[in-house]
């Protein structure tokens, strides 16, 4: 197993991309700290890892809380003796609404979870990666933060995802000398339960109608 002896942290590991990544890391031999704010979900992920013969440690924390993240990451390092891999995956869609209808409080909650949460994950994990002599960080951003700015009302979400890309680039530059790789992934639409927790409010008002000229479409001979 190529990750035998390694220790990984996965945030947002209760469902979706995070859970799938945690299970694969464990399958490859890593001990995995699985972190989420939902205790029941994270315990289920850890139990699935254990039943499959792996090692999983459930960690319940609000990623926007500096104290909770410090405590959880410290507990992981104490339990397994090191930290080599960090998958900063936790995030929310937040509230999607036109910019003049999105409240400052709604904006703030999305920023706190997606952006501050990613910062706190790295802030508290990097010292352990340095102690291990290097490692790998992966951040989940989105195509909505890089090139596909087409989800009406997602201004707060898209802003955090663009900022995560910048954070990853700067962290990669800063941490290279410590043999810590930093990468960012930008998925498109993924089947998960994140949409169930997304409040959409008057998003049609944020949508810009697009007009396309008539004519032949090159290469397809269509119209």
What this model shows, in words?
The structure is a single chain. The protein has helices spanning 16-27, 39-51, 66-80, 104-131, 155-175; strands at 7-11, 31-36, 55-60, 85-88, 95-96, 135-140, 180-185, 199-200. The protein has 223 residues and is an alpha/beta fold. The protein has one domain (7-188): Rossmann fold (3-Layer(aba) Sandwich). It has a six-stranded parallel sheet with strand order 3-2-1-4-6-7, with helices on both faces. Strands 5-8 form a two-stranded parallel ribbon. The termini are far apart.
Number of domains: 1
Please report the first level of CATH classification, the CATH class: Alpha Beta
Major β-sheet strand ordering: 3-2-1-4-6-7
Q: What is the string of helix and strand elements?
A: EHEHEHEEHEHEE
Name given to the CATH homologous superfamily: NAD(P)-binding Rossmann-like Domain
Features:
223 residues; alpha/beta; Rossmann fold; 6-stranded parallel β-sheet; two-stranded parallel sheet; 5 helices; disordered C terminus
Compact description:
The protein is of the alpha/beta class and about 220 residues long. Helices cover about 40% and strands about 15% of the residues.
Topology overview:
Layout: E1 7-11, H1 16-27, E2 31-36, H2 39-51, E3 55-60, H3 66-80, E4 85-88, E5 95-96, H4 104-131, E6 135-140, H5 155-175, E7 180-185, E8 199-200
Parallel strand pairs: 1-2, 1-4, 2-3, 4-6, 5-8, 6-7
Helix pairs in contact: 3-4, 4-5
């Amino acid at each position: 197993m190529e990750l035998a002896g390694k220790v990984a942290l996965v945030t947002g590991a209760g469902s979706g991309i995070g859970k799938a990544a945690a299970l694969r890391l464990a399958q490859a031999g890593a001990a995995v700290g699985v972190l989420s704010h939902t205790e029941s979900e994270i315990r289920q992920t850890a139990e699935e890892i254990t039943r499959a013969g792996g090692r999983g440690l459930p960690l319940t924390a609000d990623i926007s809380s500096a104290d909770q993240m410090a405590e959880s990451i410290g507990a992981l390092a104490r339990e397994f003796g090191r930290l080599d891999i960090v998958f900063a995956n936790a995030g929310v869609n937040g509230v999607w609404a036109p910019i003049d209808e999105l409240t400052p409080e709604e904006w703030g909650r999305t920023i706190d979870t997606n952006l501050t949460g990613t910062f706190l994950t790295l802030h508290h994990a990097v010292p352990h990666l340095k102690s291990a002599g290097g490692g790998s960080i992966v951040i989940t951003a989105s195509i909505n933060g890089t090139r596909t700015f087409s989800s009406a009302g997602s201004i707060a979400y898209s802003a955090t995802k663009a900022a995560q890309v910048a954070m990853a680039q700067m962290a990669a530059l800063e941490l290279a000398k410590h043999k810590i790789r930093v990468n960012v992934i930008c998925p498109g639409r993924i089947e998960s339960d994140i949409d169930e927790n997304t409040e959409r409010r008057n998003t049609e008002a944020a949508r810009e109608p697009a007009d396309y000229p008539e004519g032949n479409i090159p290469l397809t001979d269509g119209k």
